[in-house]
Amino acid sequence: ETGVTQSPTHLIKTRGQQVTLRCSSQSGHNTVSWYQQALGQGPQFIFQYYREEENGRGNFPPRFSGLQFPNYSSELNVNALELDDSALYLCASTDRGGRGRIGELFFGEGSRLTVL
Amino acid sequence: SQQGEEDPQALSIQEGENATMNCSYKTSINNLQWYRQNSGRGLVHLILIRSNEREKHSGRLRVTLDTSKKSSSLLITASRAADTASYFCATRAPSGNEKLTFGTGTRLTIIP
Q1: What confidence tens digit (pLDDT) does each residue in A23-65 have?
Q2: In chain A, which residues have their Cβ closer than 8 Å to the Cβ of B30?
Q3: DSSP A54-73
Q4: Which residues of B touch A23 (CB under 8 A)?
């Protein structure tokens, strides 16, 4: 157990809809990252939040957006869903400036999104 | 985009044998990490090696890093059925945030 929890675990949406995925970071971790993992591929970095501000973004369009809250939990929002958005969405936390400074990430179990 | 490739894409060995997976990457790194993933679930951190290190051990795991060749290898000794999983290497850039760039993964199957 990594202490990182994600919800929901599975969900099905249709094209054009919007989705919100949630993540609770490990206690004491101030940095949250989101990754998209398509079937059979490695995870791809979407963005990272540190102390409620976006701190790096991968090659994803603006319809992928996020938030980090004062308790360091986070949300990933995807608007205007497309079929290719079907994937496992992984949240990872670390403690920048603390023990996690070396870069080890603690991942949740993921939210599997299917877009029909 | 993926940072690099892992080789082989799939590997099946008998329980008790050693498993070796290789990873290549493209750009300079601060560190390289290996993660394990069971059946599309979350990733579990296995081991981290810094760019100024050449070899590191953790239990049955041995990782090597050759920055001149931009490559790394993960050796799992005395494999067990429970080692069946996908293994990913991930690199962190020398500066900036904690973003990891993952490889394509090796699917390891241990045959009891």
Answers
A1: 999 888 889 999 999 999 999 999 999 989 998 999 999 999 9
A2: 103
A3: EEEE-S--TTEEEEE-TTS-
A4: none
Q: Note every long-range contact of B19-22, with CB atoms under 8 Å and residues 24 or more positions apart, other chains counting.
A: B19/B75, B19/B76, B19/B79, B19/B83, B19/B108, B19/B110, B20/B73, B20/B74, B20/B75, B20/B76, B21/B73, B21/B74, B21/B87, B21/B106, B21/B108, B22/B71, B22/B72, B22/B73, B22/B74
Residues of A in Cβ contact (< 8 Å) with B104: 41-42
A43 contacts on B by Cβ (under 8 Å):
43, 88, 100, 102
A33 touching B, CB under 8 A?
yes
Helix, strand or coil for residue A31? Answer: strand
Q: What is the mean pLDDT of residues A92-98?
A: 77
Measured between CA atoms, the residue of chain B closest to residue A43 is B102
At residue A105, the 3 state secondary structure works out as coil
pLDDT of residue B89: 96
Mean pLDDT of A73-91: 97
Residue spans of chain B under pLDDT 70: 1-4
Fill in the amino acid letter for A107.
Answer: F
| Shortest CA gap A18–chain B (Å) | 23
Query: Percentage of chain B surpassing pLDDT 70?
Result: 96
Among B residues 18-57, those touching chain A with beta carbons less than 8 Å apart? 30-31, 33, 35, 40-45, 48, 50
